[in-house]
Amino acid sequence: MRVGFGNDHRGFKTRESIIGLLSHLGHECIDFGSNSEDPVDYPDIAYAASTAVARNEIDRAILVCSTGMGMCVAANKVKGIRATFCMDEMSADISRHHNHSNVLCLSADISNENLMHKIIETWLSADIGGGRHERRVNKIREIEEGHDPRE
Question: Are strands 83-85 and 103-107 parallel, antiparallel or unpaired?
Fold first, then answer.
């Protein structure tokens, strides 16, 4: 799988660990930066990685900032993106199965390396659900298109 990875300056310390994990798991990692602890604006990183997912240039992306929330908000502004902020393995699994998430956002400040790795492994291996889950994701797409999903 082609997995994008992006971090801001606050997520820089997680960078080598996550890129190494992706490689160890056999995934091709596409790097969207940042390459240092020098301050950068997280929306720039989130946009670059999320746009690549939306254009099918990569399969999924993982984004890390201080809380994970800023990256998540920015990524979700890109049409076709279902970014999710996960803090444990259960939320990672459900975000894929129920919500068909294609961007995973993590907190550099809250999560420890071992937990981050477990979340990533769970998220990458989780299947997307059909049936009612697919119906609900289709309604999310309707909202994204400016339509009332209740109609």
Answer: parallel
Annotation says 65 is catalytic: yes
Residue written as tokens 């393995």? 89
pLDDT in tens, 71-87: 999 999 999 999 999 99
CA distance 111 to 17: 13
Q: Distance between CA 149 and CA 151 in Å, rounded?
A: 5
pTM of the model as a whole: 0.96
* 72 catalytic residue (yes or no): no
Q: Domain spanning 2-144 has what CATH number?
A: 3.40.1400.10
Q: How many CA atoms lie within 13 A of 80 on its CB side?
A: 13
The one catalytic residue in 97, 98, 117, 133 is: 98
Q: Report the run of H or E that residue 24 belongs to, with start and end.
A: helix 15-24
Q: Which of 9, 29, 65, 86 is catalytic?
A: 65
